Amino acid sequence: MDAIKNLSKLLKKGEISTELEFQRATMLDRTLKLMSKENSSIREQRGKLRQLLVDYEAKHWNDGEPSDEKVAQSDLATSIAETEHAFKLARKRIIKEKLKENGLKQKDLLMLLGHANESYISELINGINPMTLSDVAVLHLLLGIELEDLVPTILDLKVLRRLSGVKHKMNSPKLEERIGELVEA
To answer: Could you list the residue ranges forming a coiled coil in this record (predicted)?
Structure first.
Protein backbone atom coordinates (compact mmCIF):
# COMPACT_ATOMS: atom_id res chain seq x y z
CA MET A 1 0.00 0.00 0.00
CA ASP A 2 2.95 2.27 -0.58
CA ALA A 3 1.06 4.71 -2.76
CA ILE A 4 3.86 7.14 -3.71
CA LYS A 5 6.21 4.27 -4.49
CA ASN A 6 3.48 2.54 -6.50
CA LEU A 7 2.61 5.79 -8.28
CA SER A 8 6.25 6.32 -9.23
CA LYS A 9 6.54 2.74 -10.51
CA LEU A 10 3.29 3.07 -12.44
CA LEU A 11 4.31 6.36 -14.04
CA LYS A 12 7.72 4.93 -14.92
CA LYS A 13 6.07 1.83 -16.44
CA GLY A 14 3.79 4.13 -18.43
CA GLU A 15 0.67 1.98 -18.39
CA ILE A 16 -1.90 0.32 -16.20
CA SER A 17 -1.99 -3.39 -17.00
CA THR A 18 -4.52 -5.01 -14.64
CA GLU A 19 -7.97 -4.22 -13.36
CA LEU A 20 -6.74 -4.18 -9.75
CA GLU A 21 -3.98 -1.76 -10.70
CA PHE A 22 -6.67 0.38 -12.39
CA GLN A 23 -8.93 0.36 -9.33
CA ARG A 24 -6.03 1.19 -6.99
CA ALA A 25 -4.98 4.00 -9.32
CA THR A 26 -8.55 5.33 -9.24
CA MET A 27 -8.49 5.39 -5.43
CA LEU A 28 -5.05 6.98 -5.48
CA ASP A 29 -6.31 9.66 -7.85
CA ARG A 30 -9.02 10.58 -5.33
CA THR A 31 -6.44 10.88 -2.57
CA LEU A 32 -4.06 12.91 -4.71
CA LYS A 33 -6.86 15.29 -5.66
CA LEU A 34 -6.79 16.82 -2.19
CA MET A 35 -3.02 16.93 -1.97
CA SER A 36 -2.50 18.37 -5.46
CA LYS A 37 -4.04 21.68 -4.43
CA GLU A 38 -1.07 22.31 -2.14
CA ASN A 39 1.73 20.64 -4.08
CA SER A 40 2.47 21.35 -7.76
CA SER A 41 4.62 18.22 -8.22
CA ILE A 42 1.72 16.06 -7.02
CA ARG A 43 -0.57 17.97 -9.37
CA GLU A 44 1.72 17.09 -12.28
CA GLN A 45 1.95 13.42 -11.27
CA ARG A 46 -1.82 13.29 -10.85
CA GLY A 47 -2.26 14.58 -14.39
CA LYS A 48 -0.05 11.79 -15.70
CA LEU A 49 -1.93 9.24 -13.59
CA ARG A 50 -5.26 10.46 -14.93
CA GLN A 51 -4.01 9.98 -18.48
CA LEU A 52 -3.00 6.39 -17.65
CA LEU A 53 -6.52 5.81 -16.29
CA VAL A 54 -8.09 7.17 -19.48
CA ASP A 55 -5.76 5.06 -21.64
CA TYR A 56 -6.58 1.88 -19.68
CA GLU A 57 -10.33 2.44 -20.01
CA ALA A 58 -10.02 3.13 -23.74
CA LYS A 59 -7.99 -0.05 -24.24
CA HIS A 60 -9.94 -2.44 -21.99
CA TRP A 61 -13.52 -1.18 -21.77
CA ASN A 62 -14.38 0.37 -25.15
CA ASP A 63 -14.59 -2.84 -27.17
CA GLY A 64 -18.32 -3.48 -26.97
CA GLU A 65 -20.18 -5.45 -24.33
CA PRO A 66 -17.83 -6.71 -21.58
CA SER A 67 -17.89 -10.42 -20.76
CA ASP A 68 -19.26 -11.71 -17.48
CA GLU A 69 -15.72 -12.74 -16.53
CA LYS A 70 -14.41 -9.23 -17.20
CA VAL A 71 -17.18 -7.68 -15.10
CA ALA A 72 -16.56 -10.17 -12.26
CA GLN A 73 -12.82 -9.42 -12.36
CA SER A 74 -13.59 -5.70 -12.24
CA ASP A 75 -15.99 -6.17 -9.32
CA LEU A 76 -13.40 -8.16 -7.36
CA ALA A 77 -10.68 -5.58 -8.07
CA THR A 78 -13.04 -2.77 -7.04
CA SER A 79 -13.87 -4.59 -3.81
CA ILE A 80 -10.19 -5.08 -2.94
CA ALA A 81 -9.29 -1.46 -3.76
CA GLU A 82 -12.25 -0.14 -1.76
CA THR A 83 -11.33 -2.34 1.21
CA GLU A 84 -7.76 -1.04 1.09
CA HIS A 85 -9.02 2.54 0.88
CA ALA A 86 -11.48 2.05 3.76
CA PHE A 87 -8.62 0.65 5.87
CA LYS A 88 -6.52 3.77 5.21
CA LEU A 89 -9.42 6.07 6.14
CA ALA A 90 -10.10 4.14 9.36
CA ARG A 91 -6.40 4.15 10.26
CA LYS A 92 -6.23 7.90 9.66
CA ARG A 93 -9.28 8.49 11.89
CA ILE A 94 -7.84 6.30 14.68
CA ILE A 95 -4.44 8.02 14.57
CA LYS A 96 -6.06 11.45 14.75
CA GLU A 97 -8.28 10.35 17.65
CA LYS A 98 -5.29 8.97 19.57
CA LEU A 99 -3.30 12.14 18.95
CA LYS A 100 -6.18 14.21 20.30
CA GLU A 101 -6.61 11.92 23.34
CA ASN A 102 -2.93 12.43 24.14
CA GLY A 103 -3.00 16.19 23.61
CA LEU A 104 -0.77 15.93 20.55
CA LYS A 105 -0.87 17.53 17.13
CA GLN A 106 0.06 15.93 13.84
CA LYS A 107 3.31 17.89 13.82
CA ASP A 108 4.28 16.20 17.11
CA LEU A 109 4.60 12.97 15.12
CA LEU A 110 7.66 14.51 13.46
CA MET A 111 9.57 14.15 16.70
CA LEU A 112 7.99 10.87 17.75
CA LEU A 113 8.54 9.12 14.42
CA GLY A 114 11.74 10.91 13.49
CA HIS A 115 10.66 11.99 10.01
CA ALA A 116 11.85 15.14 8.25
CA ASN A 117 8.79 17.28 7.50
CA GLU A 118 5.10 17.78 8.14
CA SER A 119 4.03 16.99 4.58
CA TYR A 120 5.66 13.56 4.90
CA ILE A 121 3.71 12.95 8.13
CA SER A 122 0.51 14.00 6.35
CA GLU A 123 1.27 11.59 3.51
CA LEU A 124 2.05 8.86 6.04
CA ILE A 125 -1.26 9.35 7.86
CA ASN A 126 -3.16 9.49 4.56
CA GLY A 127 -1.60 6.24 3.37
CA ILE A 128 0.31 7.89 0.53
CA ASN A 129 3.69 6.91 1.98
CA PRO A 130 4.18 3.60 3.80
CA MET A 131 4.69 3.28 7.52
CA THR A 132 7.91 1.64 8.56
CA LEU A 133 7.93 -1.08 11.19
CA SER A 134 9.38 1.53 13.53
CA ASP A 135 6.46 3.90 12.80
CA VAL A 136 3.99 1.12 13.52
CA ALA A 137 5.76 0.16 16.76
CA VAL A 138 5.86 3.76 18.03
CA LEU A 139 2.18 4.36 17.24
CA HIS A 140 1.26 1.06 18.86
CA LEU A 141 3.39 1.41 21.98
CA LEU A 142 3.10 5.14 22.65
CA LEU A 143 -0.42 5.88 21.46
CA GLY A 144 -1.95 2.48 22.19
CA ILE A 145 -3.20 1.86 18.65
CA GLU A 146 -3.91 -1.80 17.98
CA LEU A 147 -1.62 -3.43 15.43
CA GLU A 148 -4.65 -4.58 13.40
CA ASP A 149 -5.56 -0.90 12.98
CA LEU A 150 -2.09 0.01 11.72
CA VAL A 151 -1.15 -2.93 9.49
CA PRO A 152 -3.50 -4.02 6.69
CA THR A 153 -4.23 -7.70 6.36
CA ILE A 154 -5.72 -7.47 2.89
CA LEU A 155 -4.44 -10.11 0.50
CA ASP A 156 -3.46 -9.30 -3.07
CA LEU A 157 -5.25 -11.01 -5.98
CA LYS A 158 -2.11 -12.98 -6.85
CA VAL A 159 -1.92 -14.35 -3.31
CA LEU A 160 -5.63 -15.21 -3.29
CA ARG A 161 -5.25 -17.07 -6.59
CA ARG A 162 -2.18 -18.94 -5.31
CA LEU A 163 -3.99 -19.92 -2.12
CA SER A 164 -7.00 -21.05 -4.11
CA GLY A 165 -4.74 -23.26 -6.21
CA VAL A 166 -3.06 -24.94 -3.24
CA LYS A 167 -5.94 -25.26 -0.78
CA HIS A 168 -6.84 -28.79 -1.92
CA LYS A 169 -3.20 -29.89 -1.60
CA MET A 170 -3.13 -29.21 2.13
CA ASN A 171 -3.34 -32.06 4.59
CA SER A 172 -5.34 -29.91 6.98
CA PRO A 173 -9.12 -29.63 6.54
CA LYS A 174 -9.17 -26.63 8.90
CA LEU A 175 -6.56 -24.79 6.87
CA GLU A 176 -8.32 -25.73 3.63
CA GLU A 177 -11.56 -24.30 5.06
CA ARG A 178 -9.86 -21.06 6.17
CA ILE A 179 -8.25 -20.64 2.75
CA GLY A 180 -11.65 -21.21 1.16
CA GLU A 181 -13.17 -18.49 3.34
CA LEU A 182 -10.39 -16.04 2.41
CA VAL A 183 -10.68 -16.72 -1.30
CA GLU A 184 -14.46 -16.45 -1.31
CA ALA A 185 -14.63 -13.33 0.89
So the answer is: none
